[in-house]
Amino acid sequence: MKRLLPVVGLGLCASLSASAFAQQNATIRWMTGNTAQSVQFANEVAQRYMDANPHTIGGEEYNVTVEIIQGPESATDRYALYLQFFQAQSGEADVLEIDVIWPGDLAEHLVDLYEYEGAREAAEEHFPAIIENNTVDGRLVGMPAFTDAGLLYYRSDLLEEYGFDGPPETWAELEEMARTIMEGERADNPDFTGFVWQGEAYEGLTCNALEWIASFGGGTIVSQEGQIEVFNDQAIAALETAAGWVGTISPQAVTGFQEEDARRIFTAGNAVFMRNWPYAYSLLIDAEGPVTTENVGVTTLPAGEEGGTPAATLGGWQMGVSRYSSNIDVAVDFALFATSYEEQLQRALVVNNLPTIEAIYEDERLLNSPVAWFADLLPVFQSAVARPSTPTAPRYNEVSRAFFTAVHGVLMGTTDAETALGELEFTLEELTGLPVAGGAQDVASR
């Protein structure tokens, strides 16, 4: 273990002077998200760690200062910033929040947490599938901080008012409900819309579009077996359906929305449905506006057709440590603290992020909290659809960019779904060298 000091003999221990254990000062920098909620929680985590000073790390005592760096809101932009750091071998950030799709691509720039005391034991507490995702060639390059999956938020009061028994089970039902409620609400609120989601050309659109396509039975872009499966009738139908929302049940501007854009419209009382991550629920707790937990429900996203299977894209973030940090031992210690049982529980209660430690879902503090519903949706999170980061590594980000660019063109009306996906299939073949799945033969024009 890198954090264990070698002991040559008892005489050496006896001869160590008191000065050898003098407290050292260390500063580490943690790059987080930039929403007000994430920054506030990050500061609370950092303060709890600093309140526990001094920390004994590798046989030495440290007074640690944790500084927060706000990263870009877009995951795509944050990934690009990390690449700048790594290419310059910069220690600008010691501890990095790593998206679930990045471990394979960034592994060479991150330390192996298994080489540090306590990491292997900590890893055993987390969902095995996420630890496996974060392990590259036997090296654990990220400790899970929280997991995620796309969810459907809906105005329960409006559904009841307009005579609907519950949330939609299919996308067609969502369209019908949205149109009916929009027609009624726009009499008094011309800004009211039906459904808000993430339509900008970035990683968030990959998540949304993967949910649409998978829910129609159109595959997952590239299968886990390494076959391209993006050009088929079901995928085309899914994108045609979503393109039909733009300017009808969704505002024209949805093609420029990220998570916070959608959330602001929904929480202002100007939409009946929203696709978002679980974090958005926490902002409804004790809210004073027209939308609170009292009139909002959360459920699985709709299926493509009646009797079909809903799909939710797997998300989540990990804590990684840059190999270019000048305080690696301290940074690892902090990363283990920030992803521990108690900190994940607090993150669940405060930020509504889903724990990666299964035991937390049975903790009475969670079950007696406003996010007790986490336990009810646990099967959704456990069976969420993974993006094809493993079969396309180390080219996933290029694959995703090609995918969300093609989808965005369909949403904007600059191309049709069949043309876009046919061209995308060729692009992915060239980019990855992977074969095309047989399902692509469903498209008559192929």
UniProtKB/TrEMBL annotation:
Pfam families: SBP_bac_1
Entries under Gene3D superfamilies matching the protein: Periplasmic binding protein-like II
SUPFAM superfamilies: Periplasmic binding protein-like II
Keywords tagged on the record: Signal, Transport
GO biological process: maltodextrin transmembrane transport; maltose transport
GO MF term set: maltose binding
Signal peptide: 1-22
Record-linked InterPro entries: SBP
Keyword Transport: yes
A cellular component term, taken from the record's GO annotations: ATP-binding cassette (ABC) transporter complex, substrate-binding subunit-containing
Family as reported in the entry's similarity comment: Belongs to the bacterial solute-binding protein 1 family.
Protein name: Extracellular solute-binding protein family 1
Organism: Truepera radiovictrix (strain DSM 17093 / CIP 108686 / LMG 22925 / RQ-24)
